[in-house]
Design a protein that fits this description.
heterotrimer; A mainly alpha; B mainly alpha; C alpha/beta; B: mainly alpha; 10 helices; 67% helix; C: alpha/beta; Rossmann fold; 4-stranded antiparallel β-sheet; 11 helices; 32% helix; globular
């Protein structure tokens, strides 16, 4: 078990380091960051001076090591635009993003679990068909379009919810739906097929044979088994939400990491882009890792089988 | 996979097309979906020539016309006009090209690069395989949109950025699945026999392995069309993809967002175009997968 | 004769499938007395499992239905009860069913205490967490699980195979049912595990008057455990009698073929007497004897008319036109 944990942690670290290399080198491919920093008419001597100060005269691999060393201590340089440490700028926005991703995840689960369960229990019925149709639609609608439609209908037409912004619980509803919409389809499918397997198992038959009502059998016993495959990939979905947040945060003016990075892209504020993307990658890898390691909590067999 | 598992070394895999024609069943939905895709293809190829109006033709007098069936609608502009009086139907037709071309690039480049890498990884195994799979892990640890943002920040936003990002993002898909397929294929007799018979690696790859993974590649590619279209739309929507005067569905939505309150149709119509295209592509993909191999539902 | 514990009369259960109506159980008569073990033997598809599911009223919801006949337990016809009544007063309470595979019969993600306590909760025989635990401990002690109070919060995988068997048995007998159906596992199970499981029930049978139905395809297993045996073929009981009679004086050619298929201990496994041919389709069964097509003794009459059941000796009934010892 410990060996397994160690192995997974090392793999995760390799991924993060790899991601940082990719991000660093892509940024450097842009050419000279100096051009962005200094006015075009700056004297060559000044340019040379700044270049040396910023470590840009070093060979690329040394630049990366410096970058990585600084990154380890949380130093991604200052935002060109805000003149503040890039990482702390991004970190300030992190809670809003996590809040949004969690709300979206919750929304998708609240929809997917009942749908998946009912589709399995009444397979072939109208609810199964509805679930399938819903799933297909979900995968064909871009999250930003869902967001815009929500604004159009709920905010503009009926004036039920605030169209954008952050603060009250009402503000989270539309962004969470827009972001949580897409994974509903896949999650429903996962719950459904797991549920079909479980409902066909000896232990459910056993439960029935000793007098369990269908309600208890399905929602208490079968559901916990069927939830295992869903829970084991929730991390993947959480991570996917972090990726999707770039667009959804932009539409709803949600003050999260995603919107900050998108804005930074337009102002060519590289340190912020680097910090934001790397932070997202770290979260991405960590959430996958945590889920991997928490299998044992929901599935008691795992702890001993490994 | 196909029924030729016990075949002689030289027996070619059944081509995707012939087996398709044999099994063209499955009700009306696949047909309807293919018809939809055909319409999109025609629109993409025809572009400006079949559009009723110039997609970029400004006519401020005709601004904010609602769709024809709505009150004050005009059949000259079946789906209405935008804030500059441009015909939305014509712009959707023009935008189909961007969507399909990006999907095509993804399929051709991501598919062949990813497929080849997957074949190499699965066939040679060992260190090569380990390194490639770590690369895939690294790639997967950066959310694709985040990677797109970095690339766009560096190279600026245009169509080629979109294509590069799509290829960089989607090759891993093919690589992983093809690798798995190859791992099981290379244990088969005919590959071993081909090796014994002294066939070169290239021959084994392209004569013996490739035909057997064609079905998988085709299914993956079809299932990816929808994803790529949405991905392109997202990038263009953020302003990191297609730039005016080129037209794309994502860009149309991005524009329409600025006058959301004035013209519901401007936000609805391009979205419906995206939705229908993805829906059709996904259905055809699902159906192809079920037809080729009902057991591999996890693709 | 006293009233049997279970009496199945002319039971017909059909499966309504897309390809047609399968007459899975087609006029079955059976009885089980208190304290006895009846073996129901047949190939897969003979209707033995559908018979047990009919008794439990656990037929597949979308396709299965009892179309005729009655199932009497304690003077009540189970076929007339509602689903709610079955769950509340019967399943687990008076009739219980258990798969003979102990490895898959326990839910892996719930504690043993929860699962063994469940029947008490369903039937309101214990109220409150504490009482349920106490009841679970008591029944686990009955099946001789060592220090049960310490093991209630363990999960099934923490138990050995033999202990798991006991837990499954505990669940099935928790509420002291009168009838227990031990169904053949769907998986290929080691016969010794199967026999151990039944032996456990027979132990429990001694101090209660539990009636047991053992569903199996293996006449050998049935012969070693049961008091009486009913042989089913193509949805019908073709021969029934006490074990001794069936073993020594089997009168139906199908039973004889099954007996010949049992490898005997000490005997070198020669070519088994395989029965040629396939059982008939139950969607469109033949009018005559259903075994006729595979039977060496068949006559024109066999193919024309289903044989009536004749009682050769008290309790030994057979449905065959030409019953009798095997022709050598």
């Amino acid at each position: 078990m410990l060996v397994y944990i160690a192995k997974r942690v090392v793999q995760g670290l390799v991924s993060i380091v790899g991601a940082s290399i990719v991000i660093f080198f892509i940024s450097r491919l842009s050419g000279d960051p100096i051009v962005l920093l200094l006015p075009t008419e700056a004297p060559p001597a000044l340019i040379e001076q700044v270049r040396r100060d910023m470590g840009l005269a070093e060979p690329l691999w040394r630049q990366y090591l410096i970058f990585a060393g600084n990154a380890l201590s949380g130093d991604f340089g200052n935002s060109y635009r805000w003149q503040a440490p890039a990482m702390s700028l991004v970190l300030d926005r992190l809670p809003a993003t996590i809040y949004l991703a969690l709300a979206a995840l919750l929304f998708s689960i609240l929809l997917a679990v009942p749908f998946g369960v009912l589709s399995a229990v009444y397979r072939g019925s109208w609810i199964d068909t509805l679930g399938k149709g819903f799933a297909m639609l979900g995968q064909a609608m871009p999250n930003f379009w869902v967001g815009l439609l929500l604004i159009l209908i709920l905010a503009i037409q009926f004036n039920l919810l605030p169209a954008y912004g952050y603060g009250t619980p009402a503000h989270i509803i539309m962004p969470a739906i827009a972001l949580g919409w897409y994974p509903v389809a896949a999650q429903t499918r996962i719950v459904r097929s797991a549920m079909l397997d479980v409902l066909d198992s000896d232990y459910i038959r056993m439960g029935r044979a000793v007098g369990a009502s269908e309600r208890v059998l399905i929602w208490k016993y079968a559901l916990r088994n069927a939830a295992i495959p869903l829970v084991t990939i929730l991390g993947v979905y959480f991570a996917a939400m972090l990726g999707g947040a770039f667009v959804v945060e932009t539409i709803f003016a949600w003050p999260g990491v995603g919107r900050t990075v998108v804005e930074a892209v337009f102002s060519r504020d590289f340190p912020v882009v680097q910090a934001g993307v790397l932070l997202t990658s770290i979260l991405f890898v960590t959430s996958n890792l945590l889920v991997d390691l928490s299998y044992g909590l929901i599935d008691p067999r795992i702890r001993y089988d490994r | 996979m196909t029924a030729d598992s016990a075949a002689f070394p030289t027996l070619p895999a059944r081509g995707p097309l012939s087996s398709l024609l044999v099994r063209l069943r499955g009700g009306g939905l696949p047909w309807l979906s293919m018809l939809t895709l055909l319409v999109v293809i025609v629109a993409a190829v025809g572009g400006e020539t079949i559009a009723p109006h110039d997609p970029n033709g400004l006519d401020l007098g005709a601004a904010f016309r609602p769709p024809a069936w709505a009150e004050k609608g005009d059949w000259a502009y079946p789906l209405g006009t935008d804030n500059l009086g441009r015909d939305i139907l014509s712009r959707i037709i023009a935008g189909a090209r961007v969507s399909l071309v990006s999907a095509l690039y993804a399929i051709i480049f991501a598919g062949s690069i990813g497929g080849l890498i997957g074949m190499i990884s699965g066939y040679f195994g060992g260190v090569v395989d380990a390194v490639i799979m770590r690369l895939v892990d690294i790639q997967l640890s950066i959310p694709s949109l985040a990677l797109a943002l970095v690339i766009a920040a560096v190279f600026g936003a245009d169509f080629s950025t979109v294509i590069v990002v799509i290829i960089v993002t989607y090759w891993t898909w093919y690589a992983r699945i093809v690798r798995g397929e190859i791992l099981s294929l290379k244990e088969r007799d005919y590959v071993a026999l081909a090796k014994v018979a002294g066939c070169g690696t290239g021959t084994i790859f392209f004569r013996h392995l490739l035909p057997n993974i064609m079905n998988t590649l085709l299914v993956l590619a079809t299932l990816q069309v929808g994803q790529v279209i949405i991905f392109e739309a997202s990038l263009s929507f953020l302003g990191l993809g297609i730039q005016a005067p080129d037209v794309s569905w994502g860009l149309m939505l991005s524009d329409a967002r600025n006058y959301l309150t004035n013209a519901w149709w401007a936000i609805t119509m391009p979205g419906i175009a995206i939705m229908l295209t993805c829906l059709a592509a996904n259905m055809v993909g699902d159906w192809l997968r079920d037809t080729f191999d009902p057991k591999r539902r996890q693709l | 004769m006293s009233q049997p514990l279970l009496r199945v009369e002319n039971l017909r259960t059909h499966l309504f499938l897309k390809r047609g109506v399968v007459r899975a159980v087609d006029g079955v008569n059976l009885h089980v007395d208190a304290g006895e073990t009846l073996g129901v033997v047949g190939e897969s598809g003979s209707g033995k499992s559908m018979t047990s599911l009919s008794i439990m009223r656990l037929l597949p919801k979308q396709s299965g239905r009892i179309v005729e006949g009655s199932i009497w337990v304690d003077g009540i016809d189970l076929t007339t009860l509602s689903e709610e009544e079955m769950a509340r007063d019967w399943r687990g309470r008076r009739v219980s069913m258990v798969s003979q595979d102990p490895m898959t019969s326990l839910n892996p993600v719930f504690t043993v205490g929860d699962q063994v306590g469940a029947p008490f909760r369903y039937h309101r025989l214990a109220q409150g967490a504490r009482a349920v635990r106490a009841a679970a401990v008591k029944v686990l002690r009955r099946v001789r699980i060592p220090s049960p109070e310490k093991r209630l919060d363990d999960y099934p995988h923490q138990f050995s195979g033999g202990m798991r068997q006991r837990v499954v048995a505990a669940m099935a007998i928790a509420c002291a049912p009168r009838l227990l159906i031990a169904d053949e596992p769907t998986s290929n199970l080691d016969v010794t595990i199967q026999v151990q499981m039944i032996e456990l029930f027979r132990e429990l049978q001694r101090d209660s008057a539990l009636g047991i139905i053992l569903i199996t395809h293996d006449l050998g297993v049935a012969a070693s455990i049961c008091n009486r045996v009913a042989v089913m073929y193509a949805g019908r009981v073709v021969e029934v009698g006490d074990v001794r009679t069936i073993y020594r004086n089997a009168a139906h050619p199908y039973t004889q073929a099954l007996l010949n298929a049992i490898p005997h201990l000490g005997q070198k496994r020669k070519r088994l007497h395989a029965i040629g041919g396939q059982p008939p389709s139950l969607i469109d069964p033949p009018v005559g004897c259903r075994f006729a097509a595979r039977c060496a003794r068949r006559t024109a009459q066999c193919e024309a008319q289903y044989p009536p059941e004749v009682e050769l000796a008290p309790g030994h009934k057979v449905a065959c036109w030409l019953p009798g010892p095997e022709a050598r």
